[in-house]
Design a protein that fits this description.
Blueprint (H helix, E strand, L loop, with lengths): L3 E5 L3 H13 L4 E5 L3 E5 L6 E5 L15 E4 L3 H13 L3 E8 L4 E7 L5 E7 L1
Length: 122
């Protein structure tokens, strides 16, 4: 159902470097970009994620209660991707681990403070 998710940034170049390196770990590549946004996907026919300077010209702010969840294949990959995000400067919002029956996730905030996680079903 979801085609893509866009999160705000106040520094497109810094955000692009973060997501280029982070998402390359799971096959993510840029598939669209312009002066104000960049979008990544492992396959352009599947859901993707984008960062963008806000259209209204105001500063990007973090949505309270908003989180983007990125699915990966297994707990080992969740662990690796969560660690990679932190290595690239993200802040920890919840160590990788089981979250109830059949769900494994690691939570972080990107360089602009947007909350994301990598997860898998176990």
């Amino acid at each position: 159902m979801i085609g893509y998710v866009t999160i705000g940034t106040n520094d497109l170049e810094r955000g692009a470097k973060f997501y280029d390196e982070l998402l390359s770990e799971i096959g993510g590549k840029r598939f669209m970009e312009a002066d104000t946004f960049i979008a990544w996907a492992a396959d352009p026919e599947r859901p993707g994620i984008a960062i963008s300077k806000p259209f209204d010209g105001e500063s990007a702010t973090v949505g309270n209660g908003v989180m983007v969840a990125l699915i990966v294949e297994n707990p080992k990959q969740v662990d690796a991707m969560h660690a990679k995000a932190l290595e690239l400067g993200a802040t920890d919002e919840g160590a990788a681990g089981p979250r109830g029956e059949g769900f494994y996730a690691g939570y972080f905030r990107d360089l602009d403070g947007n909350k994301l996680n990598f997860f898998c079903m176990t």
